[in-house]
């Protein structure tokens, strides 16, 4: 009997230890996710810094090249903008690489040295063009020394970016490995617990025949173990679902899809509760219901942040029918309901609110609330990351003044559309739009009026195109229209319609109307063998021809070789 009791005691302790170890898996998994997220953010910061340095250097080269060829000071705008920012970006770049490897140090030294050398060369070319003219600069450019530095910068940036991408992949793989280990541990612990329970049940069955007291004691132990087993199974299911939700939400996706996934997992993890997710616009505006689940889901469609005590106090707020502090958005109080407001907070900012409604007398209420808090933290982090990715992508692809796509988007879309046109045996037309006498508008009316003209022109271009077309701001007062599956004649007709619309555009400054016209240059892909550079050069040449013809007109490109183009433009 003593031996049986000792075995029962040992088995109970073993099961308790296994349950404690299993219960430690969720917080440990959350720590892993947080560590990988922070490391990934640092990697993304380095990649963004590398891209910024390369883009600023390209802008400086572009501005210098335009000025050297044309001698027009307006072409130096991107050069001056890059010169103002690039030195500080170069100085700050090494600090972003904490504990760099020997190869990374070598690449950083090469990048910084060549970028500074290239920057100094660009400055020298600009000064020489001002003082000695195009021929003197052409002699320096023909040495290709600047190209050598630029190529070295591109190689260093590409290899550093590759190393960072490899590090990010390693981090993700390590996280997946840890999560799989956690799930495997939970499954093994469940099997071990089941085996122990079977063993203990046999011992209790033998003890029943010996003594009633031992039988009653064994029955109580069996019931306790059964409850523990149920709790363990629930915990294992919760861990598995939390892990799956974490993995799915790490995937890049639109905000609407992320919200739908959150709703599905909330229904699965909190089957006895109803709820809703409310999100704001990042300001002081109302929060709107974006997802809901359960039969008793909150009916409020939107509410002001001040209507919720949870948001005002930035902490979980529970309220029953007789609570003194009830949120206005919870509606009419119902006896037996417990409304719980859990703020969605990530990176120090409020995203919204998770509103749960559950049975106030539920036996597992505290466990549900603890699980809901964990889910809320994961949802807030995932939605914050999704929102951040969307904002960063929009910022990287949109011109902030006009709202049109920027030059980076234009280059990528043009490349893809030319590839698609080559596969489908169709054509792509490129329309360059250069506002006439824009410098005079800035000089006479100020840059605010110039910005107003650019915004108005951008809106007109955007609403004048098909959904498959794209309007991009190339730089300064220049715009680019990409027209897939569009022949040259059709592009010319569309350009002329836009030209007339610009002429009729009403823009006023201090009550005085501003006349807006533009010169249009058109080139088609079937004339350049689908080469983006040649297509752009052809359209650019047509714009110069439109300027020579008196502006406010549309010119279709007559193809010229690359060797002729620079001297003619100059």
Structure description:
Residues 560-570 have low confidence and may be disordered. The protein is an alpha+beta fold. The chain has helices at residues 2-23, 25-70, 77-92, 102-132, 134-141, 145-210, 212-249, 255-269, 309-313, 365-397, 407-424, 438-445, 447-463, 488-503, 532-548, 564-569, and strands spanning 274-279, 287-293, 302-303, 317-319, 337-346, 349-359, 428-435, 470-475, 478-484, 507-509, 512-514, 518-524, 554-556. It has 3 domains: 43-171, Four Helix Bundle (Hemerythrin (Met), subunit A) (Up-down Bundle); 255-397, 2-Layer Sandwich (Beta-Lactamase), CATH 3.30.450.40; 407-569, Alpha-Beta Plaits.
Key phrases:
single chain, 570 residues, alpha+beta, Four Helix Bundle (Hemerythrin (Met), subunit A), Beta-Lactamase, Alpha-Beta Plaits, 3 domains, six-stranded antiparallel beta sheet, five-stranded mixed beta sheet, 16 helices, 13 strands, 64% helix, elongated, diguanylate cyclase
Overall form: elongated
Distance N to C terminus? 105 Å
Query: Which CATH architecture of the largest domain is right?
Result: 2-Layer Sandwich
According to DSSP, the number of beta strands is 13
Here the CATH topology of the largest domain equals Alpha-Beta Plaits
Strands side by side in the biggest sheet: 3-2-1-6-5-4
Instruction: Return the domain count.
Output: 3
How helical, in percent, are the residues?
55-70%
* Average pLDDT, all residues: 81
Which regions are unreliable across 5 or more consecutive residues at pLDDT < 50? 560-570
The amount of beta strand, in percent, is: 5-15%
Top-tier CATH class of the largest domain:
Alpha Beta
User: Mind telling me the C-alpha Rg?
Assistant: 33 Å
Order of helices and strands: HHHHHHHHEEEHEEEHHEHHEEHEEEHEH
Domain GGDEF: 426-559
InterPro entries: CHASE3, Diguanylate_Cyclase, GAF-like_dom_sf, GGDEF_dom, Nucleotide_cyclase, Rev_trsase/Diguanyl_cyclase
Enzyme class: transferase
Protein name: diguanylate cyclase
